Amino acid sequence: xxxxxxxxxxxxxxxxxxxxxxxxxxxxxxxxxxxxxxxxxxxxxxxxxxxxxxxxxxxxxxxxxxxxxxxxxxxxxxxxxxxxxxxxxxxxxxxxxxxxxxxxxxxxxxxxxxxxxxxxxxxx
Length: 124
Prior knowledge:
The chain has one helix and ten strands, in the order ββββββββαββ. By secondary structure, the chain is mainly beta. It is globular, with a radius of gyration of 15 Å.
């Protein structure tokens, strides 16, 4: 068997969570957030990016089934959803001036959601 470790460059700039029949709360403090992966089945995931920063675009790959994900982002981030959905919803509760602002900091939500809910809030 091969027991060599796998090196991930700047692992603190990536997020990986997995919840099944449980809840996860994460506060992301990376000053150069690059993206990550969120897996959630029958659970709850809360991601707080209030203390984080990024340059350019970060992609959050989401696989959600019968659960909910709450994302809190800084005011100067734009969030774009490019999700495959079945009986699911992505709701952005931020005022329109934050949803459609022109900025170079873009968090893209990709992946799939089945009977799930994703909520986006701001920290302003």
